[in-house]
Amino acid sequence: ALNYTFSIIKPDAFNTGKAGKIIAHLESQGFTLKAARVVHMSKKQAEEFYAVHRGRPFFGELVDFMSSAPCMPFVLVKDNAVHALRDAIGATDPAEAAAGTVRKLYAESKGKNAIHASDSDENAVRESRFFFAEADTI
Ligand code: CMP
């Protein structure tokens, strides 16, 4: 499996000053930062990033939210990184997320859920390339 994955501190968490706490939490679980930046996505960029969800009932809300304010895309390194980060962030809905997960600790709702994590190695590569040059992630 890939040794890195892609994540975003979403606007709800980034703009309430939680980025540092979330990154420290992930570092304490053995993830290391490989690349990071701060981006205020345009609506068009958010639509392209989330193209896989086009047609879902929450697509418009998701795109509006992700383009509403700055967020923080980053790349994390760990063995079996995609699976490890999915475990660390918890369920989409913070009400259903396990104790100690990022979403249980920091998310507000199913839509404003603090953090994104790639769901497959293939998407981790695609999503990393969406925000970073290849040289920044190897
Ligand atoms: P994530 O899994 O990172 O990527 C898709 C996002 O759509 C998901 O996080 C949620 O933040 C968002 N979303 C908003 N509403 C819903 C919903 N009803 N079901 C699933 N995802 C939703």
UniProtKB/TrEMBL annotation:
Coiled coil: none annotated. SUPFAM superfamilies: Nucleoside diphosphate kinase, NDK. InterPro entries: NDK-like_dom (IPR034907), NDK-like_dom_sf (IPR036850), Nucleoside_diP_kinase (IPR001564). PROSITE patterns: NDPK_LIKE. GO terms for molecular function: ATP binding; nucleoside diphosphate kinase activity. SMART domains: NDK. It comes from the Bacteria. Residues 2-136 form the Nucleoside diphosphate kinase-like domain. ATP binds at K10, F58, R86, T92, R103, N113. One of its GO terms (biological process) is CTP biosynthetic process. Keywords: ATP-binding, Kinase, Nucleotide-binding, Phosphoprotein, Transferase. Its EC number is 2.7.4.6. The active site is at H116 (pros-phosphohistidine intermediate). It holds the Pfam family NDK. PANTHER family: NUCLEOSIDE DIPHOSPHATE KINASE, NUCLEOSIDE DIPHOSPHATE KINASE DDB_G0292928-RELATED. Belongs to the NDK family. This is Nucleoside-diphosphate kinase.
